[in-house]
Amino acid sequence: MKKVLTLLLSVFLLSGCSLFKDYYNADQLVAEMEKLVTQENKNDSIINKATDLRNQVINDLNAMKEPDQSKISDLSGKIEEAKKLLPQYKEEVKKIQSHFSDLKSKSARLEDENIKKMAETFINDFMKTTETELKYIEVFEKVLASDEEYMKDLKNGKETKDNQSQLDELNKLHTQLQDEIKQFNESWNQFVQSTTGQEVK
Q1: What keyword terms does UniProt attach to this protein (predicted)?
Q2: Of the candidates 72, 94, 99, 181, the residue with the CA atom closest to the CA atom of residue 138
Q3: What is the distance between the alpha carbons of residues 39 and 193, in angstroms, rounded to a whole number?
Q4: Which CATH number applies to 20-196?
């Protein structure tokens, strides 16, 4: 998945803040967000691994000319491995969500209305991405469950069922998530530039 932007440089000057109080509050907000953005990007490795495992299975299935019982068992194991990764990813997303009330509290203490509005915007954008991530995982879990059934049917010589509607929904959520991450990156970058004079990378 597309990464959210992280602030690589330490915060020294909060050029957009006219008040010392806002300087402190914006500094605290940026510091906390940096940690959350870093964690969000680390979570990518979990979902990417699950996606790679499923892609390997699909590629191997497509290359299989005749059902191979041993190979099907191996592929079923990869689907099971992918399934085990999703609860971990979900848990990490929920950990990030648990910080949102604190972020909102910090943004509410900002006195400059422009800065406060920018803070509220990037927090809302970030919240939106995590909500979509959880929806994505729900559908991904259904896709993997269908894959499991497909493998069982294939192994037992039964007629296999198509799960294209689930895949379409998953792709739709993936596109939505990419758009939301782009929106968050823009609003987060705008806040950082306005308060620190730096850009996120």
Answers
A1: Coiled coil, Lipoprotein, Signal
A2: 94
A3: 21
A4: 1.20.120
Instruction: Answer yes or no: pTM beyond 0.90.
Output: no
Contact between 157 and 67 under an 8 Å Cβ cutoff? The reply is yes
Give the residue from 122, 129, 131, 96 showing the smallest Cα distance to 30. Answer: 122
Angle in degrees, 0-180, between the axes of helices 113-155 and 100-108, rounded to the nearest 10: 170
3-state secondary structure of 120: helix
Q: Domain residue spans in the chain?
A: 20-196
170, 143 Cβ separation under 8 angstroms:
yes
CB–CB of 147/163 below 8 Å? yes
pLDDT in tens, 91-118: 999 999 999 999 999 999 998 899 899 9
What spatial distance separates the first Cα and last Cα of the chain, rounded to whole Å? Answer: 16
